[in-house]
Amino acid sequence: MSKNLDFVKFDKVDKSYDGKVLVVKDLNLDIAEGEFITMLGPSGSGKTTCLMMLAGFETPTNGEIYLDKNPISNIPPHKRGIGMVFQNYALFPHMTVYENLAFPLKVRKFQKDEIDKKVDKALSMVSLSGFENRMPGQLSGGQQQRVAVARSLVFDPQLVLMDEPLGALDKNLRESMQYEIKHIHESIGVTVVYVTHDQSEALTMSNRIAVFNDGKVQQLSSPDKLYEEPVNSFVAEFIGENNTFAGQVTNMSGKACKVKLNDGTEIIANPISVKSNGDKTTVSLRPERALINTKEKMDNNFKGKIEEVIYHGDHTRVRLDLLGNKEFILKVPNSSANMDIKMGNQINVSWNSHDARALDPK
Amino acid sequence: MSSETGKILTTDGIPLEVSLKKAERKNKIKAFLLVAPLLLFLLITYIFPIGDMLMRSVDDKMVTEMLPKTFKSMEKWDGKELPPEEVFESFYLDFQKLVEEKRDGKLSTQLNYTKNGFKSILKKLRRKAKNFEEGNYKEQIMAVHQRWADVEYWRAIQRRAPAYTSQKYLKGIDMYKNEEGNIVSVEEDRRIHRILWLRTLEIAFFVTLLCFLMAYPIAHLLATLPMKYSNLLMICVLLPFWTSLLVRTASWMILLQQQGVVNDFFVMIGLVADDSRPEMMFNKTGTYVAMTQILLPFMVLPLYSVMKTISPSLMRAGKSLGGTPFVAFWKVYFPLTIPGIGAGCLLVFILAIGYYITPALVGGASGTLISNQIAFHMKSTLDWSFASAMGLMLLAGVLAIYWVYNKLVGVDNIKLG
Question: Who among A77, A90, A104 is closest to B311 (CB)?
Fold first, then answer.
């Protein structure tokens, strides 16, 4: 079976609500069949608007969206056959769980016994068998969430949209629901477009993540690539933790460049979005990539003063004053018995130039 | 501090309970005192008048007290033939006493309610009675007027003997107790009250329906428009509230009269000929138009407050699950607005059923309601007990509607906000 690589296709889509500001700018995005793709971004970045355009509740101002090669801009939402999970579940409060799930089947004129079978299957998928006659108001937040997921899947849509479905749940429940949704996706192979502003949610669940900011996709790649190899300083900043140094490129040499920081020190970095000498840049370094007092040979070695030590159980976070950056964060695993991590101590910090990514200036 | 209270708890449980009760009693008294003025106000202005009305509507003591001897002597009379001399004598004595006290006018009014024709014969009796000789009052009274020799009139007097009567209620539905004591309807051409009751129900029903049909889209718009537009629209809805009822009704009179704005407009666009302008006032049309407009906010507001709580994502969910916009509306949105519909309809219907000023001003003869009739008896005929009886029947009707509504929809489902 050949997979359809552009099952959903955003083609040069623009969206503006007031004719003055573009909420979505020139969006081009291909989503493969069976993929779990997450639109991640801060609020107001245009991710929910994209989802609403796909669902049919907003029309693109320009461009076209294709679903399975067919343009869908002129198809009303109820004919698109797309399942959707809403932010606050949007369960029908006057219907029982069974009636909620049966609604999409009834409007499709399924037979009664077939409806029963499908509802049963969908409820057992979210482990809520036996809850058919409850009203949504009698369910806990997590259970309502699962009913909403079951309802979006009960009519076997090929595409399911989820708009921050876990936003209203508490942390533990959110994590277990993340796995549950991920497993459901894996077991039935439906295409999922998931919107969230929670990066850890995006990282754990998705095949690919589209990071939105300012109406544009900043980076579209797999979670690990997104974290390890951010292509610009917004993505580096938005995904995970990040130490930054502002400076100017002084020496470009293929795989490495020298960056002169504002305090005069020069560090070696990996040129990603800098082209030539004199370019302003922000160098980004993940906290766990910098090591202290290491015996390994690394090409960046500096001394910093410990400003703050915060115990986190499995690791200790150390805030350093390093090369003029007073917010430089280090993560030290607690297995390594580092006895000289004390406030005010001077400490050796090293990292590989490959991990110090010279990105666009902030 | 906490260790101290902990000590009290552990050493002795009862004092804590007692002090708790004391503290709660204080709060309870405070709460009661806070609501006491309103309670008192309700008692004086609402419960007491309704009780008084109930008493007044069945009270028939007036005649009982005016003719004590007559009724006592009538106890033995079987009512088949003319009463014996004893009755005539006591009636003469009672009547003379009333004449002395100048209360005979009231008696004649009261007896005339029971049977037409008493007024003139009582007047005549008063004139003649001055010269009555002692003894044989039967002959003397019967000589005053031939009707005094008619057993029907004596039976009419006897019917007023009980201190309480349901007669006013029967009259309210165009029925009466005839001479044989059976409850029968009045002649067809005199049945005005039944027509009025039916008309009241009909107008209240259609006004409620019209209000609902108009208010539903407005309320929906109000609940879904962005704030800056919805505020303006809300002011438009509430504007009638801030205008005097009389002014609004009067402006409808200006608009609807035959030479009024609406008719002028119809003539202008050629809808009707100038010499056949339709009458839109002093009939049912006027009542419908004006009452619907005046009661509309009472429907809009409960609907709006319920619709405001319905998340727009529910309709979206309905559509995304495959429901056409109509199905999504009918299966999802509409059932959720039922509490508002119930509250609005009940409110408008109950207000409409007792509406007075508007139908009085624009209703004319064919557009008046039962409340106008009540007012008529309060102000013109001064038959307050009849007015009270009809008022209570109206109240009972409203309670009955409320009961039926509770059975059908459930009062818990009413939502005003």
Answer: A90
B321 to A87: CB separation less than 8 angstroms, yes or no: no
pLDDT band at A335 (very low <50, low <70, confident <90, very high): low
Measured in angstroms, the CA of B310 and the nearest CA of chain A are apart by: 10
Q: Are residues B215 and B264 in the same domain?
A: yes
In this predicted structure, the answer to whether residue A309 has a pLDDT above a threshold of 60 is: yes
A99 and A245 belong to one structural domain: no
Give how many domains chain A has, as a whole number.
2
The conformation of residue A221, written as its DSSP 8-state character, comes to E
Q: How many CB pairs under 8 A join A and B?
A: 65
List chain A residues with CB under 8 Å of B309: none
Interchain contact, A84 vs B311, CB within 8 Å: no
C-alpha to C-alpha distance for A27 and A49, rounded to whole angstroms: 11
- Cβ-Cβ contacts under 8 Å for A360 (sequence gap 6 or more): A232, A233, A273, A274, A281, A282
Residues of chain A with C-beta less than 8 angstroms from the C-beta of B331 = 92, 103
Interfacial B residues in 252-311 facing A (CB < 8 Å): 311
> Residue B111 and residue B96: Cα distance in Å, rounded?
16
- Note the ipTM here: 0.79
Which chain A residues touch B328 with a CB distance below 8 Å? 78
The kind and range of the H/E element at B14 are helix B13-42
Calculate the CA dihedral of residues B64, B67, B70, B75 and round it to 10 degrees: 10
User: How many residues in total does chain A contain?
Assistant: 362
| Cα–Cα distance measured from residue A72 to residue A124, given in angstroms and rounded to the nearest whole number | 33
B314 touching chain A per CB within 8 A: yes
> Taking residues B91-95, what's their average pLDDT?
88
Q: Which helix (H) or strand (E) holds A171?
A: helix A171-188
| Count of structural domains, chain B | 3
Q: State the average pLDDT over residues B272-277.
A: 83
CB B296 within 8 A of CB B211: yes
- Whether residues A161 and A295 share a domain: the answer is no
**Both structure tokens of B314:** 């529910």
Residues B103 and B46 in one domain: no
Cα Rg for chain A, rounded, in angstroms? 25
* Domain coverage including residue B9: 2-58
**Three-state secondary structure call for residue B324:** coil
Provide, as residue numbers in chain A, all residues whose Cβ is less than 8 Å from the Cβ of B317: 84, 86, 90-92
| Positive or negative torsion for Cα B397, B398, B402, B403 | negative
Cβ contact (<8 Å) for A88 and B313? yes
Cα-flanking dihedrals φ and ψ of residue A264, to 5°? Answer: 100, -20
Give the predicted TM-score (pTM) of the model. 0.76
The shortest CB-CB distance from A92 to any of B314, B320, B322 is to B314
> Is pLDDT of A296 > 70?
yes
**What range does the domain containing A110 cover?**
8-233
The helix (run of H) or strand (run of E) holding residue B329 is none
Does B157 reside within a domain? yes
CA distance B298 to B238: 10
